[in-house]
Structures are given as C-alpha cells and as structure tokens.
Specification:
Number of helices: 4
Helix content: over 70%
Largest sheet: none
Mean pLDDT: 82
Shape: globular
Oligomer: single chain
Number of strands: 0
Strand content: under 5%
Low-confidence stretches: none
Order of helices and strands: HHHH
Structural class: mainly alpha
Distance between the termini: 30 Å
Length: about 70
C-alpha cells in the first residue's frame, strides 16, 4: 500500500501541474485529514467546490467543519 505522505506528495505535484482541477483538491483533503490537518482539508474542499468539482460530499464537509470547531 502507498503511504499517506506519499499520496500527499503525489497530489501536491499534480495540483502544481493542474491547479484548476477541483478533484485534486478534493482528494488532497482526504490526505489532509489523515495528517490531522482539518483546517487545510476544509480549505481544499472549499477550493474544489470553487473550481466546480460538484462531487464533494456535504456530509464529509460538515464533519470537517465540526472537527475544526472542536480544535
């Protein structure tokens, strides 16, 4: 299995090459949560939505916002 930090790095590179692809920010948000960085995860989901990636899970987004409020 690929380690989360490796996935994060790969996604970082993909975002640098394709900064207008919302789905990349969405996928990176999952890595962010594994790294316990809920604030960055929220920003990434918001960026994905801003870029028109409409498959974002509103429940996931709500949980992130709730976790951020509890930190």
């Amino acid at each position: 299995a690929v380690h989360n930090s490796t996935l994060f790095t790969i996604n970082e590179q993909a975002i640098k090459m394709n900064p207008d692809k919302g789905e990349l920010y969405y996928y990176r948000s999952f890595c962010d949560t594994q790294r316990k960085d809920n604030a960055l995860a929220i920003r990434d989901v918001e960026k994905a939505i801003e870029l028109g990636y409409n498959k974002t899970d509103s429940t996931y987004y709500s949980l992130l916002k709730q976790k951020a409020g509890n930190q």
